[in-house]
Every structure is written in C-alpha cells, then in structure tokens.
C-alpha cells in the first residue's frame, strides 16, 4: 500500500507493506526523516487525515506520531500540529541519543575513510567554471571527442601535475577517465596484452582494485615481484596505513621497473594533501616510461564527479585510449571543460589550499581528542591525506569497538577490512577525518572516543 499525500504544499510519500501496519508506518516515517526526505520543520498531516488516507485507524497514526515524538524525530505543539524535529524542535543530537534499537539503524555519523567533506564542495566556483567553459566552448566540444579527453583538460592537467606533483607527462600521454576505478579497469583490459600476468600489491589496501585485477587474469601477489609483473602502489600516502614510501624504496621500485621491464601503477589518490613535511613528488617522475600515474578528483573535489586521469608511458597510450573508446567513448565533455576551466583559473589551487587547511585542523582535533579521551590509542599515518590509523590499546578488539560505535550511530572501519591476506598488525581503526560535515565533526569524535573507552 503506498500513498502520496499533499498537505500545505508538501508531498508526503508513505509506503506500507505487510500486516504490521503500525510498525511499518513508524519505520517509514523514521526513514523519511532520517534520510532528509522530510526536512526539519515539515508539517505532517493530522492523524485523522493520514489515517483516513491510508485506511488505518486514526489512533494508530496518533500512536505512531506519539512514539516518534518521544524518540525525538517529531515535535508536537498545541496549535502547530506535528512537525519534523530539528529546527524548532528537538536537536538532532537529542533525537539521536533517544533512538531505540541502535544496531538496526543507519549510522548518522561516519569516520570511515574514502570521502572528502562533501558539504565543502566548491559549488559556486564549480558553477562559475561550468558557465564560463560552456560559454566559450566551440560546438564541436559537445560532439563525440577524442577518447583520451578534451585537449583543454589534458593540457591543464599536464601543467598542473608537473607543477604540483612533479609528474612528467605531455598532454598527449594523458587519458581522462571516470576516476581511478575506471582507469584501473582500462589497464586491466590492456595489460595482459603487454605480458603483465602478475601484480604485486601492498599487504593492506582496498580489496576492490585487487578483485578487478584478478578477474582480468592478472594475479595479485603480495609485494615482492619478478619479471613480467607490475606493482600497484600508493607511494605518497599508503592506503590505508598512511606511511610514505621512503626515497630509497621509491628509487628501488623505479629501478626494478626499468631493469625488468615491469610496470608500476601509482595511485596518487590524495597526493595534494600534505601537512607536516615537504611535499613528496610523484614516483612517476623517476621512471615515466615504466609508471602509470593515476590521479583523481574524488578526494580534492568529490567522487560524484567521476573524474580521474592516467599519465601513461608512450607505449600504452593508444591501447588505453582504445579501451576507453570501447568502454564509454569518452568522459563527459562538459565536465571535462569545467574542470579545465577550474584548474586554469586558479580555483582548483585555491580550493585545495583551503581544504588542506581545514583537513589539517581536523587531523589535529582528532589527535587531540584521542590524546585527551583515549590516551591508550596511538595515531599513525597523519602526515598526509584524509585518514589516519588509530592503533587500539592491547586487549581491545576491532569488531567490538566498531559495534559500540554503531550503537552510538557512528560508522567506523576496522583495519582488518583492508588486510588483503592475513591481518598481522595489531587492532586498529582507519579513521577518515574528512568525511563528516564540519558541524558533525565534534559529535563524531565524541562518539569515537566513547566507543573506544567502552
Ligand atoms: C586508495 C584509493 N585510491 C583511489 C580512490 C579513488 O577512486 P575513484 O577515483 O574511482 O573515485 C580511492 C577512493 O576511495 C582510494 O581510497
């Protein structure tokens, strides 16, 4: 049974299923408020009207409203009816604390790694870059284009990457793609034809790229490689451990690739965010003919843009461009021109500088909160990037801390989830401190330390 209700100009969509009408209505309204579909302050239909429309007793609706008021989701005031809480009603924090059956709900806070602060996306700057780019774009830019990407963006990236990351790649070596995810998928198609049958991966990392490689017949193995192989590395800020590949190891890796004809895939996913030391340039510069440099806008701007780029050895460009053409012709021309304008106008640099400062402050607040409230925790991997590793005191279990956090509405990621083979390190959490919007960060940290302390 589903209904759409219109009241005071607001549509209220409620879907009920099964026989447990009361529980169903309660869950449907809770979900609508929690997901933000019903905004704070929204006035709900009267219990009589909603009951009549749904074909259920008015009292049932009244009981549901009463329950949700008690939980803090709704407010009921004489004369102003029942409304969604949060503006004039109960604060989200109070509502959060009052919610029952915590294990079953969606977390309100997240300190998982992987996202920048999406609420800080430079909307105005992006819009004005899009306006400017479209205003001056020739009509041909709206047709099918070069599968490697729009020349404007490849030129902008070539200059930007050389300036900020030391990458040595002319524009004709760059292929624009839908994030690192697609960049790797394209390489998976191409590399077997170049004799790559094995790839060395770091002991801890994201499982998705490893699965993608394996399903293309490129066997992943833990680091330690030989001829006919490749390496997938995150040299600037190891994901997830946060360490930086030392200059000696970088040189060793580049030498190995040059001597053996091997290939390194350098995933430079958050290379722009460095805090405590001199920036570490891209490994690619040490052996441009043996390193595929992969960059992405997913951390600097937002993953929803699906914009990434590969800077390729000369011998791989045509094959990767063909794979890109087969995959999806090319990445959206308008989005590419917008990013090109965003970079060349200086807005990208300004945004990154602002973001770097904000994330650095957040990192410091994380370190401070743990030092004060969970002093047994050791924080590592903090010199760069958007995440850190919180090593738990001996005796603590990752799953228990994660469960206690979940009970407080906080999503956490245990380090064990990134162990590609055995989890040989001590218990730890991978904390993505960029993820929450600014207003939620303090609450997220309070929940984190409370969960660690039990
Ligand atoms: C290690 C690492 N590399 C790359 C990416 C970015 O992937 P994409 O560019 O496909 O969004 C992420 C995102 O979470 C990541 O954690």
Architecture overview:
There is one protein chain. Helix 8 (207-215) links the parallel strand 7 and strand 8. The strands form five sheets. The protein has a seven-stranded mixed beta sheet, sandwiched between helices. A four-stranded antiparallel beta sheet has the order 13-14-17-16, with helices on one face. It is built from 14 helices and 17 strands. The chain is globular. The model is unreliable at 6-10, 87-91 and 97-104 (pLDDT under 50). Helix 6 (151-165) packs across helix 11 (333-344). It has 454 residues and is of the alpha/beta class. 44% of the residues are buried. Bound molecules: pyridoxal-5'-phosphate. Pyridoxal-5'-phosphate is lined by residues 114, 179-181, 206, 234, 239, 267, 269, 296, 298, 303, 308.
How helix-rich are the residues, as a percent range?
A: 40-55%
Q: Distance between termini?
A: 42 Å
Q: How many helices?
A: 14
Could you give the count of β-strands? 17
Q: Could you tell me the radius of gyration in angstroms?
A: 25 Å
Spatial arrangement of strands, main beta sheet: 6-12-11-10-9-7-8
Biggest sheet character: 7 strands, mixed
Secondary structure category: alpha/beta
Task: Enumerate the distinct ligands.
Answer: pyridoxal-5'-phosphate
Estimate the global geometry from the Cα principal axes: globular
């Amino acid at each position: 049974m589903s209904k759409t209700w219109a009241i005071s100009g607001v549509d209220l969509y409620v879907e009920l299923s099964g026989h447990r009408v009361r529980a169903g209505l309660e869950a449907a309204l809770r979900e609508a408020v929690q997901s933000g579909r019903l905004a704070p302050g929204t006035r709900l239909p009267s219990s009589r009207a909603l009951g009549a429309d749904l074909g259920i007793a008015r009292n049932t609706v009244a009981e549901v409203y009463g329950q949700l008021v008690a939980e803090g989701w709704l407010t009921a005031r004489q004369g102003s009816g029942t409304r969604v809480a949060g503006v004039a009603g109960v604060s989200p924090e109070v509502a959060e604390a009052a919610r029952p059956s915590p294990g079953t709900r969606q977390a309100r806070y997240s300190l998982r790694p992987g996202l920048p602060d999406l609420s800080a996306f430079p909307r105005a700057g992006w819009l004005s870059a899009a306006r400017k780019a479209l205003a001056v774009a020739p009509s041909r830019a709206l047709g099918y284009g070069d599968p490697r990407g729009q020349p404007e963006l490849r030129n902008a990236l070539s200059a930007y990457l050389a300036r900020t990351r030391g990458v040595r790649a002319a524009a004709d070596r760059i292929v624009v793609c839908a994030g690192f995810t697609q960049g790797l998928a394209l390489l998976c198609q191409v590399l077997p034809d170049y004799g790559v049958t094995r790839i060395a991966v770091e002991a801890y990392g994201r499982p998705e790229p490893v699965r993608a490689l394996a399903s293309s017949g490129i066997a992943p193995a833990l680091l330690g490689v030989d001829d006919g192989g490749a390496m997938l590395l995150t040299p600037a800020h190891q994901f997830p451990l946060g360490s930086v590949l030392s200059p000696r190891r970088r040189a060793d890796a580049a030498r190995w690739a040059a001597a053996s004809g091997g290939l390194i895939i350098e995933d430079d996913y958050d290379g722009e965010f460095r805090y405590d030391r001199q920036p570490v340039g891209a490994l690619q510069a040490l052996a441009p003919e043996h390193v595929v440099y992969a960059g992405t806008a997913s951390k600097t701007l937002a993953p929803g843009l699906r914009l990434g780029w590969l800077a390729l050895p000369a011998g791989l460009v045509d094959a990767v461009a063909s794979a890109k053409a087969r995959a999806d012709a090319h990445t959206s021309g308008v989005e590419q021109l917008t990013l090109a304008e965003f970079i060349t106008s200086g807005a990208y640099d300004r945004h990154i500088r602002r973001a770097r400062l904000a994330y650095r402050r957040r990192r410091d607040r994380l370190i401070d909160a743990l030092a004060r409230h969970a002093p047994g925790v050791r924080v590592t991997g903090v010199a760069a990037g958007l995440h850190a590793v919180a090593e738990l005191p001996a005796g603590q279990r990752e799953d228990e801390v994660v469960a206690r956090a979940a009970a407080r509405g906080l999503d956490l990621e245990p380090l064990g989830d990134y162990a590609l083979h055995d989890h040989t390190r001590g218990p730890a959490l991978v904390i993505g401190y960029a993820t929450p919007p600014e207003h939620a960060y303090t609450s997220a940290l309070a929940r984190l330390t409370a969960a660690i302390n039990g």
